[in-house]
Design the sequence.
């Protein structure tokens, strides 16, 4: 699972780029000596990633002893290797690239690179990184550094607990070095069925690993392939929230609303949400919240749009983590996308809504984030909660339940949502912001009268 970190996001348009399977330098293909230096950088990350996993094996007692043997290294010596990797990934990449090309550079390989490569760790052919390297060598035309870089990402992703930290750092590092990071760049297919077929082969060849249960099962390989593919597309900006935003703005139903979008007045919109709103999640090229933020950034600079998000965010955690920061930002509108699990969540949601209302900000939430026929209480923001908080409720439950592509909504983890879902939600969120859909108003007078008022908002 992603180690979701508390963060807020602003939206900046990034240029799209693509990376060829071969290694390219600024002045064309790298020469043999240059490739050798690049291969050393990649292999150092393979070794250091393995060193950390050897520590995991020792502490957990899990994993094949031969595959994850410390080879005589103490735990402190293994931790030194891991520390060298952290330092290596922080090096000035301009200097690192100059070094790979044999040009004058301030990069000193003796500081971190050489110590990692000198570590006497043996990498079993049954390790995921070597199993996947062997597979790629047989099905794709790519140089050694490219194959090892992608295999290193898979080894880290299978570990799962660092897919929000080290994995992203490695992917950014390899992209900066001009390396491919997902198998689509090697011309290989990327459907979920394709990833499962590969996983069924590789699982039989892979040793038991000290990650989580069934960490190298066919499904583990499958979901790892999907994660690496989707993050690769996003990090290269080949398919991300901006690509989805441009497509959204070109839809006939949204295109006719462009005059309204472009003339939205100066305002600040805040989104407080869990993983369904996070652009960093692997399940979709763009979360609905991020897509709308990108669409507004492309069309109307008067609207300021920020997200405050954390995985599994409940109302109580949102109150503790983000409320004061969001309040200080002085938003005009706040969208809550938080889990409601306890009475304290409701109490804290009411406190936040009251505080924002006193500061002149309106609150809103969707009636559900999933099919309304499901028992998804943690995602529900309707009913009594709406009446007690005074939130404006944006009704999408019926649309989700009857969507023609509903069967495609759930991603492989059976929790998060894929691009079709986020397209629908982005469409409805943007329409709500420009007053082009009907929402149910759950205000104090509504609760008191026991009736529901409908109208344009």
Sequence:
């Amino acid at each position: 699972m992603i180690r979701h970190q508390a963060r807020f996001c602003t939206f900046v348009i990034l240029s799209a780029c693509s990376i060829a399977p071969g290694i390219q330098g600024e002045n064309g293909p790298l020469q043999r000596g240059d490739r050798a230096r690049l291969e050393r950088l990649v292999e150092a990350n393979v070794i250091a990633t393995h060193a950390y996993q050897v520590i995991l094996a020792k502490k957990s007692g899990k994993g094949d002893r031969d595959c994850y043997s410390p080879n005589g290294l103490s735990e402190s010596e293994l931790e030194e290797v891991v520390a060298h990797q952290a330092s290596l990934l922080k090096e000035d990449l301009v200097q690192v690239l100059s070094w790979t090309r044999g040009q004058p550079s301030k990069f000193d390989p003796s500081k971190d690179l050489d110590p990692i490569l000198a570590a006497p760790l043996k990498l079993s052919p049954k390790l995921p990184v070597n199993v996947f390297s062997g597979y790629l060598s047989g099905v794709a035309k790519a140089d050694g550094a490219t194959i090892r870089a992608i295999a290193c990402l898979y080894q880290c992703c299978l570990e799962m607990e660092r897919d929000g930290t080290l994995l992203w750092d490695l992917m950014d590092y390899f992209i900066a070095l001009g390396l491919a990071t997902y198998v689509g760049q090697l011309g290989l297919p990327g459907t979920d069925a394709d990833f499962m077929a590969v996983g069924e082969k590789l699982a039989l060849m892979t040793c038991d690993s000290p990650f989580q249960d069934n960490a190298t099962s066919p499904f583990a390989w499958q979901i790892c392939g999907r994660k690496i593919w989707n993050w690769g597309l996003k990090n290269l900006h080949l398919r991300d929230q901006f690509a989805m935003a441009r497509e959204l703005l070109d839809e006939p139903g949204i295109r006719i609303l462009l005059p309204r979008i472009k003339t939205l007045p100066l305002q600040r919109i805040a989104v407080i949400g869990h993983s369904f709103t996070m652009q960093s999640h692997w399940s979709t090229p763009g979360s609905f919240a991020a897509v709308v933020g990108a669409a507004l950034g492309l069309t109307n600079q008067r609207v300021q749009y920020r997200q405050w998000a954390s995985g599994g965010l409940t109302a109580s955690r949102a109150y503790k983590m983000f409320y004061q920061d969001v309040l200080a930002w002085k938003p005009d509108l706040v969208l809550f996308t938080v889990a409601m699990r306890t009475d304290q969540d409701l109490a804290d949601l009411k406190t936040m809504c009251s505080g924002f209302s006193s500061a002149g900000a309106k609150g809103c939430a969707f009636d559900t984030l999933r099919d309304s026929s499901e028992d998804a209480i943690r995602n529900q923001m309707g009913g009594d909660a709406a009446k007690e908080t005074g939130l404006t409720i944006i009704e999408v439950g019926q649309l989700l339940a009857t969507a023609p592509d509903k069967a495609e909504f759930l991603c492989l983890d059976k929790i998060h949502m894929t691009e079709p879902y986020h397209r629908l939600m982005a469409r409805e969120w943007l329409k709500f912001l420009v007053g082009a859909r009907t929402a149910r108003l759950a205000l104090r007078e509504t609760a008191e009268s026991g009736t529901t008022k409908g109208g344009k908002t």
About this structure: The mean pLDDT is 87.
